[in-house]
Design a protein that fits this description.
Structural class: mainly alpha
Number of helices: 10
Number of strands: 3
Mean pLDDT: 79
Strand content: 5-15%
Strand order of the largest sheet: 2-1-3
Radius of gyration: 24 Å
Shape: elongated
């Protein structure tokens, strides 16, 4: 089932009716009982899921993969990360012309490498922001090689820029990797809580007694993760109550097959 954008206001009332109709249609069509649903982290979905649960026994919770994307969004709003991302964009922009990209292509060929493009970030996919920075970082040797040539000496990249980008990418990589795992086919056999725990442990490993860039970013991310975990604990408590209620009032006439929407 796909929601097609239209002129309707997608508020709690509209979404509650729409999703209730979808769930009812699934149950009638396939002879199953929809026992749970997963939604993104938009505030309107909080109230929508609560409204649906009032009308029917259902377990509802938020998508951790989407939450991790929002965590990356907040990470890119940190001054140090934002500065590196902006510099990465400027470096990528240096190779938007045919002449400059051909020069980069030839430099890659000289180092026995191939390049087809530098990933462009998508405004609503924060993993892509990191992927773009990693693409730029991967071309450090070739770009600095080009900059030694008089024709390309005005390229904006410096060795220090790449060093800072490398530190940022190392700290953010565990979050992006966890997002990929949770969105993969293997996610069904993974415990969501285990993935989130591994993310926090990986980020914490960058914290030390210094005030270097990696440690500072890691501290900020841990604060964001702890805030998320506090919310997750509350949601888990609510979910447990919903499960108990669901099991206690589930009518015997319901089909035994259950699916998650």
């Amino acid at each position: 089932h796909t929601m097609v954008a239209d002129l309707e206001r997608h508020d709690e009332g509209y979404l509650t009716k729409f999703l209730t109709d979808v769930i009812t249609d699934i149950e009638k069509t396939y002879g199953v009982h929809v026992s749970s649903m997963v939604a993104d982290n938009a505030p309107v979905m909080d109230s929508t899921m609560t409204a649906i649960q009032k009308e029917r026994p259902m377990i509802a919770h938020h998508c951790s993969a989407h939450w991790l994307q929002l965590l990356l969004k907040e990470a890119f709003e940190l001054p140090a990360v934002c500065e590196c991302a902006s510099k990465s964009d400027l470096i990528r922009a240096d190779f938007q012309t045919k002449a400059s990209f051909k020069a980069l292509f030839d430099a890659c060929h000289a180092f026995k490498r191939r390049i087809t493009r530098i990933a462009k970030p998508c405004a609503t996919r924060w993993n892509s922001r990191l992927d773009s920075m990693i693409d730029v970082l991967d071309l450090e040797k070739e770009i600095l090689f080009l900059k030694q040539q008089k024709e390309w000496e005005n390229l904006c990249a410096t060795k220090g820029d790449f060093d800072r980008m490398r530190e940022v990418c190392e700290v953010l990589a565990p979050i992006a990797n966890a997002t990929d795992v949770l969105q993969s086919d293997a996610a069904g056999v993974l415990l969501e809580a285990d993935v989130m725990t591994e993310v926090e442990e990986a980020v914490r490993s960058f914290i030390d007694d210094t005030d270097d860039l990696k440690s500072a970013i890691a501290r900020s991310l841990v604060e964001l993760l702890q805030h998320r975990n506090e919310k997750a604990n509350w949601e888990e408590n609510q979910r447990s109550q919903a499960v108990a209620k669901f099991l206690s009032i589930k009518p015997s006439r319901m089909p035994t097959n259950e699916v998650t929407a």
